[in-house]
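Note to self: keep these together.
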Amino acid sequence: MTTAEKMVLIADKKQRNMQIGKKKRVAINKLVELDKQCGQDILLYIFDREKQKMIEFRSTNEFDGHLVSRLLDDDHKWQISHQTVNSEQMLRGMDKNIKDNDDDESVEEQKTETVLNSPAKFLDLDQLMKKYLIPEF
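Structure:
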């Protein structure tokens, strides 16, 4: 039986809720390791449709949805490499295509639309953009 075949929704609600808590803790601990050991900036949203509850994990308080939205807007997305990977791709073994370093040219970069479009102006956002982007010449 393949990994994809094993991945089915847990029918028992109590058992499913226990697994949700356990798997969220494991995932967040891995993200903390990726942040602290590898120096990566991380933003992750987990949305429970049943409970209508959102959890947001940030490696730093400043690295939030507004900043990521700005990094991906039309004025800046040409400056960064952006990949989108979903559960189906991971289960089909496409996780091998996740670009690990700048020397790997085997991955075709995916251009995606900006997910968050916040019209709000943040005074510190321009300052943060300078931290995360290479300056224009």
